[in-house]
Design the sequence.
């Protein structure tokens, strides 16, 4: 008998605003779900009203983790203290490793008025929190996309996608936390069982349509996050069709002390980060 991953919880995101007044839905990292090791935050932003996002995220620091921004529609202009300038396009991904420090701005640009996407915060292990920062802008054409024989569209952002029929290396591979990040579009009546490493924490974020999962009566509707156990098979069915983010990562099992955009292992390290930021040495 197939052992399926157990559902730990199903939650709706919470409407909030961040940066200079950007309206967004905080799925992880708010009062509902504080974090899900190794994931620290997941935001969904989407609006056809530029007033709700155009002020963007003016210069701000990060230390101790990685931010992954995935745009579905619209554009985001990024600039950091290292001189990196990037324009993230609809369908593109920015993978930013803050490590010991990045100061950057993330400013949305209008494209027919619509902006839609996600930002994910992924923790770094303690040994890498003060390492060298890194930044990659990945253009849509450089992200592997495929359609399975069952008609499911897959965007393989990170890790290897494998449904038992098709294998596809994603655009990004990371040694620690070994993140797997896929964007799936399931037509009505589709089923999929993406293989994910045993021991990885798994989350699904349904952002359109609805899905059905083993062991859960009824459907999981859009704007719901499902957290799953770290062992067993993942199976997703969709009677009516759905768009779903699949996120998996190896838990770090380290203490997490967070103060806004700084995520370290101890209070002392947070105090050091605050001093370094005050003294202009965060990124030195
Ligand atoms: Fe940022």
Sequence:
């Amino acid at each position: 008998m197939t052992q399926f991953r157990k559902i730990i919880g199903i939650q709706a995101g919470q409407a909030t605003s961040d940066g200079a007044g950007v309206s967004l839905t905080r799925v992880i990292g708010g009062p509902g779900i504080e974090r899900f090791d190794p994931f620290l935050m997941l935001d969904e932003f989407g609006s056809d009203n530029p007033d709700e996002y155009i002020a963007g995220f003016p210069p701000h620091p990060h230390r101790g983790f990685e931010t992954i921004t995935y745009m579905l529609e619209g554009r985001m202009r990024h600039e950091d203290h290292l001189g990196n300038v990037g324009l993230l396009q609809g369908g593109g991904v920015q993978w930013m490793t803050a490590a010991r420090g990045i100061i950057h701005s993330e400013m949305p640009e209008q494209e027919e008025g619509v902006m839609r996407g996600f930002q994910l915060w992924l923790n770094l292990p303690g040994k890498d929190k003060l390492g060298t920062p890194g930044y990659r802008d990945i253009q849509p054409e450089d992200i592997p996309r495929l359609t399975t024989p069952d008609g499911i569209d897959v965007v393989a952002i990170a890790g290897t996608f494998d449904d038992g029929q098709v294998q596809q290396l994603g655009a990004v591979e990371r040694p620690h936390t070994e993140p797997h990040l896929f964007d799936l579009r399931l037509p009505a009546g589709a089923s999929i069982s993406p293989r994910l490493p045993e021991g990885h924490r798994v989350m699904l974020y349904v952002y359109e349509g609805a899905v059905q999962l083993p062991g859960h009566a009824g459907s999981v509707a859009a704007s719901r996050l499902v957290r799953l156990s770290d062992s067993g098979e993942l199976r997703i069915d969709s009677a009516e069709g759905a768009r779903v983010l699949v996120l998996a990562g190896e838990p770090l099992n380290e203490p997490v002390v967070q103060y806004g955009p700084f995520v370290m292992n101890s209070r002392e390290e947070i105090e050091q980060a605050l001093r370094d930021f005050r003294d202009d040495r965060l990124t030195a």
Summary: The CA atoms of residues 211 and 220 lie 5 Å apart. The pocket of fe (iii) ion is lined by residues 57, 60, 62, 67, 104, 106 (CB under 6 Å). DSSP finds one helix and 25 strands in the chain.
